[in-house]
Design brief:
The protein has 353 residues and is an alpha+beta fold. It is built from 9 helices and 15 strands.
């Protein structure tokens, strides 16, 4: 079982791209234990927000970036104590970066943090219950995500990185690493299928499971819409994907039926569960990318009904088997209650007649 890791490119707290476009200056960065072991190009790319990738490679190859006063290659592995000289760089989007320091942004970040309960924390890990509607990181017009929120509200954390991603509209268990060693180890577990990630979902219609757990296996292909939005479709030329689906309960009322199910990821492709349920003919309630608007209007969906309720893994430092769970969101229970009440009324009417 695995879910998709994110890039491991890490760096110091002060981004090299925060150099003012009107007052460029040389930066000298000393590599600490959390940055050690990275490639030079990854180190620079992680923090050169808004700087074109081609420009980062150009300043490395031209010798403007120096490691311990010597020219270095993009593939150079950094060692603790190395001093990296970074030449003046100008932001491609200075206004977007400047917003991080405003009082308004700090206030927004605190508001997001208050709605993001901590499920588990120690010196290596921070695991939160991400609310639906909050992206895991900024970008594409989003100034604040989970990672930016935590860097603003938890300035005492010298290092904090996402272990994996959740879609913006998906809620639930989200793992973050407070040590680079923990991040590397969790990414290894993900790659080698040693983690367990499970989701609750509400799907349109009655999903018929049969005798055993349904094994949904489709090749998935990522593509872009004309407006630049990312989408995924079932395509023979795509990458293999596998979801195990277990039906928990079917709820009916006069004009609609929904199914509560648990999905266990065997692979971690983009939008995997959502596309698998669409292919099955039972899209997830509230899915504005792969669902049906008329069905969602019928049941009055107010969010994407997909929730990461369980993460299982081995603690990267202690070796302990971990099982972190998040309760079913109130929106799920409220939606199911609507169907249960309708069903109870129906049974009462039938009994009376």
């Amino acid at each position: 079982m695995k879910f998709e890791p994110i890039s491991q490119s890490l760096g110091p707290k002060t981004p090299i791209s925060s150099v003012s476009p009107t007052a460029p200056t040389v930066h000298l960065q000393t590599i600490g234990p959390e940055e050690a072991g990275q490639r030079l190009d990854n180190y620079l790319l992680r923090w050169a927000k808004g700087v074109p990738k081609s420009h980062v490679y150009r300043i490395i190859r031209s010798g403007e970036v120096r490691v311990n006063k010597k020219k270095a290659e993009p593939t150079t592995r950094l060692v603790e104590g190395d001093v990296v000289r970074v030449p003046p760089v100008r932001l491609a989007e200075p206004a977007q970066m400047a917003i991080v320091n405003t009082a308004q942004t700090k206030s927004r970040a605190q508001g997001y943090s208050d709605k993001m309960p901590i499920l588990y924390e120690d010196d290596a890990l921070l695991i939160v219950n991400k609310p639906a509607g909050l992206a895991v990181h900024g970008g594409s017009g989003i100034a604040l995500g989970v990672i930016e929120t935590l860097r603003i509200t938890r300035p005492e954390l010298k290092f904090i990185e996402l272990v994996h991603r959740l879609d913006r509209d998906t809620s639930g268990v989200l793992l973050l690493a407070k040590k680079r060693s923990a991040l590397v180890e969790l990414h290894r577990q993900i790659r080698e299928g040693q983690t367990d990630k499970r989701y609750y979902l509400l799907a349109h219609g009655e999903v018929t499971q049969g005798a055993g757990v349904m094994q949904l296996k489709y090749a998935l292909h990522k593509y872009l819409l004309p407006n630049g939005e990312r989408r995924v479709r079932v395509d023979p030329d795509g990458l293999p994907s596998h979801t195990a689906l277990r039906v928990i309960k079917t709820l009916k009322r006069e004009n609609a039926t929904i199914t509560l199910a648990e999905a266990q990821l065997k692979t971690g492709r983009t939008h995997q569960i959502r596309v698998h349920l669409q292919k099955l003919g039972h899209s997830i309630l509230g899915d504005d990318k792969y669902g049906f608007e008329d069905q969602d209007k019928m049941v009055k969906s107010k969010r994407l009904y997909l929730h990461a309720h369980l993460a299982g893994f081995t603690h990267p430092r202690t070796g302990e088997k971990m099982r972190i769970e998040s309760p079913l969101p109130v929106e799920f229970t409220a939606m199911m209650k609507l169907f249960e009440v309708a069903s109870e009324k129906s049974e009462t009417i039938k009994a009376a007649t």
